[in-house]
Design brief:
By secondary structure, the chain is of the alpha+beta class. It has two domains: 8-68, no CATH class; 77-107, no CATH class. The chain is built from two helices and eight strands. It has helices at 36-41, 86-101, and strands spanning 8-12, 18-22, 29-32, 46-50, 54-59, 64-68, 108-109, 113-114. It has a three-stranded antiparallel sheet with strand order 1-5-6, with no helix packed on it. A hairpin with a 3-residue loop joins strand 7 (108-109) and strand 8. The chain is extended, with a radius of gyration of 22 Å. The two termini are 34 Å apart.
Length: 123
């Protein structure tokens, strides 16, 4: 949802299709990546499959539009030499990101609590 456009919600899926269901009364909608949810729990609903690489905009009055996403830029990334695939690099680097976010464990205190940096009590 966008602050400037509170009457609509945008849905985008990175890979694979998703389905939009509309109730008989056309006053309820359901968006799911699993089309079987409409078959098992919402009999009588109409549905439309939204193809991969599309953006779906759903309005509060249960109207919708969808359009193909167009890539504006192309980014070419190669993994660092010690990795065979970019995903391996991302998994490895996520460990560093967690360590830095928790100040290498320094933000943990007793009773399963974490000190969040940057927040101060109002004076």
């Amino acid at each position: 949802m966008e602050i400037k456009n509170p009457e609509s919600m945008l849905f985008v899926k990175n890979s694979g299709d998703f389905v939009l269901g509309l109730s008989k009364a056309k006053d309820e909608m359901l968006v799911s990546s699993d089309p079987s949810i409409l078959l098992t729990n919402h009999s009588g609903w109409t549905h439309e499959q939204i193809p991969n690489n599309h953006i779906l905009e759903v309005k509060s009055d249960c109207t919708y539009t969808f359009q193909k996403l167009e890539k504006k830029i192309q980014i070419q990334r190669n993994p660092k030499t010690m990795f065979n695939h970019i995903m391996h690099e991302e998994i490895y680097e996520s460990i560093d990101a967690v360590d830095q976010a928790t100040d290498f464990g320094g933000k943990f205190i007793s009773n399963h609590q974490v000190v969040l940096g940057g927040f101060e009590k109002a004076k």
